[in-house]
Design goal:
Order of helices and strands: HHHEEEHEHEEHEHEEE
Largest sheet: 6 strands, antiparallel
Structural class: alpha+beta
Strand content: 25-35%
Distance between the termini: 37 Å
Oligomer: single chain
Helix content: 25-40%
Length: 240
Amino acid sequence: MKNILDPAISTPLYVQLAEQFRELIQSDQLQFGDRFPAELDLAAEYGVSRITVRKAIEDLVNDGILARRQGKGTFVSKPKIERELVNVTSFTDRMQARGMIAGAKSMDIKVTPASPKMALLLGVPENSGIAEIQRLRLINDEPVSLETSYLSVERCPGIQHENLIDQSLYQILDKRYGLRPAYSSKTLELVYASPSESRLLNTAKGASMFLMTALVYSEQRQVMEYVKIISRGDRFRFQM
């Protein structure tokens, strides 16, 4: 049963309508993948113009709650994953706190000599050993981000041999090496997925992505990790 719109108050009708559409979706009356009712039907049901309905739907499309599909209509989107930009807790802990099942697939682990840039970032000598750990991050078995961590092998000997599928990297760094993340310096930018990233993350070629890079500092104020994270733009929303 629909709520009644109030034209007497200062809030525009399309804003009132958008809020009612949000409540409809949040109350689980419409599920992910369901087709949203047609504009003409909604206009008749709520007694407003089609333009008002279209503006309300556009608000939800801009917020990622609804998605338009060319020639097919408008559908309910998957809810975006909230992520705090300043958080230094592990990915696993963050997702579990939101009631999601976090997983990972190890894509590549190798040790390479530190380039001048990497040596500067991690504060280690050039050509010293750097462990490069690439993992595909999963939420409820869906690939959502590609994460590459760089760590000093001198500070974390044997890190390349650790089981990083069933354990959190930060838990290993804490228990084995006494390194706990305290704070980080991060950058965030929008990029387009490369062909390999599109394949791994199951998105269209050239899809919009978030690229986050971070220097993570330990409680001893020493850089413990440099990390690059490519995240699906359609699945994340960042809080600051």
